[in-house]
Amino acid sequence: MFLSRIKGKALKLADGIELVDFGFALPYTWVLVSGPKCKALGVAMTLPEEVQRYRNPISEPSIDAFIEKADSLNVIERTLGLAAINAVSQYHIDLNNARWVDVLELLHENTEKVALIGNMPPLAEALRERGFNVFVFERNARLWDRETFSDALEYHLLPEMDAVIASASCLVNGTINMLIDRARKAELFILTGPTGQLLPEFLRGTRVTHLAAMKVVDMERALLGLKLGSFKGFEDGNRKYVVEVP
Q1: What are phi and psi of 239, to 5 degrees?
Q2: Which of 98, 134, 217, 226 is packed most tightly, with the most Cβ within 10 A?
Q3: Is the domain of 124 the same as that of 213?
C-alpha cells in the first residue's frame, strides 16, 4: 500500500512532537500536534460511506500509534494515520518555495484531456471554461451529476489523460496506486485538497508531480471549523499553496 512507504519516514520525523488533540469527525478527521517550534494541524477527508462498525484498539493515543495504523485495511485507522502524518508534515514543511496559487495555474496550454478524480464542481467548471476536455470520476454515487463518470471507468480512461488532478482522499480510500499506474501518459499528476498536506519529499519517485493543499494560518479559526463540522469554517483558516514534488 502507498502509505506503507510513507509511514516509516513520518515516524522518524515525529520524534519530539507530541499529540495535543484529535478527532475522527466530519468533514475532516484532524490531529493537532506540538513541538519545540510550533503547533501544527493535519487533516484527512473522512469517507463515511466506507466506515463500518468498529472498535479502535488504541488505548493510549499518540502520534506514533496513529501513524503505525496509516496502512491499515480499516478506513478509520487509515484516516487517523494519514491525519497524523499530515500533522507531522505540516510541522516540518518549508513553504519558502511554494506557490500561493490555485491548482489551475499548473496546467499547460497544450494540455487537452484532464481527469478529475473526485467530483469537484467549481474546479470542473473552471477547467471547462478554459477549454480543457474534462473527465470527472467519482466513487460516491450521491455526488454524481450528468457529467460524472463512475470511478470504475478510471482503469479504462486514465491512460488517455494528459493531466490528472486527484482529490488527495485517494490516499484514504487506497486507490492512488492504481491511479498512478494507469495515468502513465499524464505529464502532471496533482494531489489536491486539505488531505494533501504531505511533505513533498515523501512522494519522491512516485510520479506525483505536485501537491496543492492548504496551510493553516489561523489555528483557532480552523479548529473551530473542524469541531463544528464545517468545510468553509475550516478552510477560512487556511491558505492554498502548491509545491512541486522533487
Answers
A1: -135, 130
A2: 226
A3: yes
Q: Which domain holds residue 121?
A: 103-218+237-244
Q: How confident is the model at residue 161 (pLDDT cuts 50, 70, 90)?
A: very high
Residue 112 shares a structural domain with residue 213: yes
Out of 65, 92, 119, a domain closes at 92
Q: Residue 143, exposed/middle/buried by CB under 10 A (0-12, 13-18, 19+)?
A: middle
Number of compact structural domains in the chain: 2
Sheet strands side by side (includes 39-45):
18-23, 28-34, 39-45
Q: What is the pLDDT of residues 31-43, one digit of tens each?
A: 999 999 999 999 9
Q: Is residue 36 part of a domain?
A: yes
Distance CA 82, CA 96 (A): 24
The answer to whether the beta carbons of residues 98 and 241 sit under 8 Å apart is: yes
pLDDT in tens, 174-217: 999 999 999 999 999 999 999 999 999 999 999 999 999 999 99
Q: What is the CATH number of the domain that holds 56?
A: 3.30.390.100
Q: In the predicted model, is pLDDT for residue 144 greater than 90?
A: no
DSSP letter at 12 equals H
The alpha carbon of residue 246 and the mean position of all alpha carbons in its chain are separated, in whole angstroms, by: 18
